[in-house]
Fold this sequence. Notes:
Layout: E1 2-10, E2 19-20, H1 30-41, E3 50-52, H2 62-72, H3 77-91, E4 100-112, E5 115-125, E6 129-137, E7 140-148, E8 156-161, E9 170-175, H4 184-190, E10 192-194, H5 198-220, H6 225-241, E11 244-246, H7 247-255, H8 258-275, E12 282-284, H9 287-293, E13 300-303, E14 307-310, E15 318-323, E16 326-331
Antiparallel strand pairs: 1-2, 1-4, 3-10, 4-5, 5-8, 6-7, 8-9, 11-12, 13-14, 15-16
Amino acid sequence: MFSKIIVHRVGNKINGESLILSQEELQLDEGTVEMLENYFLGSFKTEETYQFYSDTYLVNNPVFSSVSEIFEDKSKFLWESENIAKHLFDAAENPRVQGGELFIVFFEDEREGTEKVDKIGIFKTEKRESFLKIFPQNESFEIEKDQGISLSKIDKAALIYNNNKESGYILSVVDNNKNGDMYYWFEDFLKVKQRDDEYFHTQEALMVYKDYITKQLPQEFEVSKADQADFLNKSIQFFKEKEEFKLDDFTTEVLGDEHVIESFNNFKTDYEQDMQINIAEEFPISEAAVKKTQRHFKSIIKLDKNFHIYIHGDRKMLEQGQDEKGKYYMLYFEKEV
């Protein structure tokens, strides 16, 4: 459980709202601590991780600088929590950003796998929900309407692990309420980017391949929608079956044709230059990244407005043709389910 917690009220200065800073940490009973911990940490559902960065030096990143001070000396918790709140207040440059409570939380000696590591949580609540309070009154009841914070899902959250400081720490970040401003939490406030790890490489390798199959391949080669669907299915199957990605193995097993392989490699190079990223040619495959990314690999053939064909497997079970009635697909199967 966390050992320190403080809450500040951070309004939107563009809308004339104020910043209200607490002068003392919250003192909570064990039941409330447990409830809040579940609320704070419940939204981190993915293994996607981030790191702080700066356009100059890391120390010039305000949040990185403040959490570093707390990790070094937790007696600075109150002072640095105020600095974090002031920075968040200054970061709001969009009138659609909602004000709310900012919780700064210190998790001391929390176990991660076989090791213990300190963590700092930064959580912001924005949405308010109506609820009813019912009081017994004589032989009846009274109902009073109020508004408060729902404990079902945090609006914005960042969890900073006290390791890999030299490269910007390791963070888990969530924004469930972008308010029409997708840059406010990740970029303007935290200034973080996705870490260059196996999750990132798995995700990017799958997405560059998907873009190639759906956009570039039909421009260079004569392929049917069924062939494209088959390529997408084979790629996902490759990532599910292998523990490690090797580009040569992938292109040989999935693409096959040497001209298509050359075309894909050229496309990948252009993609890396345009996106200013580097996708490694060998890396351990992240099962979590495959699971999350495969939802974008929908192998669907849309036929006018009448039919959709969902293709999950063997390309040989599908044939395409044309007769006097028009174009058609012929599907072979063993049994109806």
